[in-house]
Specification:
Blueprint: E1 5-10, H1 11-16, E2 27-28, H2 35-44, E3 56-62, H3 76-86, H4 92-104, H5 107-117, E4 125-129, H6 133-144, H7 158-169, E5 170-173, E6 176-180
Antiparallel strand pairs: 1-2, 1-3, 4-6, 5-6
């Protein structure tokens, strides 16, 4: 299961340099069904959410690439609800797909997809884990081109073909190829 974890701080405690200035403990977002459960956890830790600690921020985050995410100005509730709506907190495949997507794009692009398509944000994204450009080229050629005799395959540069097709809508990520149509 995914491990998106955050530490939540409050500007009030941070500015007062009190015992909560270092924020909450690490919270695994997949452990919570809704934001009220996180608020309950923060209250148990001593946060005064109707007082000094009502202005929260993301103090630290682990479990995904945060390029494009401004943690100082993104409310933790907004991040939690966006991730919940996207399905990445409850679905290992969607989490893995998000990781691949964020490897080639940024959080702003992911956020726009989720805001526009909700849990269907990944409908036009296909991940080919473990694929090289040659594998991708062979797959695309086999699916969309005429079948040729096997002996002629030695004369086709499938890697170059895969890269050529990839220039249109596929990119290489750290574990394979991702298509974003």
């Amino acid at each position: 299961m995914n491990e998106i974890q955050i530490v939540i701080g409050s500007w009030g405690s941070y500015n007062e340099c009190n015992e909560r200035a270092l924020g909450s403990k690490w919270l695994n977002l997949a452990d919570y069904e809704d934001w009220t459960e996180i608020e309950e956890e923060l209250t148990k830790e001593g946060f005064k959410l109707k007082g000094i600690d009502e202005e929260l921020f993301i103090q630290d985050i682990e479990g995904f690439n945060t390029d494009g995410l401004n943690c100082d100005y993104t409310h933790p509730k907004y991040l939690f609800e966006l991730l919940k709506e996207s399905g990445v907190l409850d679905d290992d495949y969607k989490y893995e797909l998000m990781q691949a997507y964020l490897d080639v794009r940024n959080f702003d692009d992911f956020e726009e997809l989720v805001n526009n398509k909700g849990s269907q944000w990944d409908d036009d994204i296909h991940m080919y884990k473990g694929y090289t450009w040659e594998d991708y080229g062979r797959m695309i050629y086999g699916e969309y081109c005429y079948q040729i005799p096997e002996v002629l395959e030695n004369f086709i540069d499938f890697e170059a073909y895969g890269r050529y097709i990839g220039d249109c809508y596929a990119e290489e990520y750290n574990e394979g190829i991702i298509e974003i149509c």
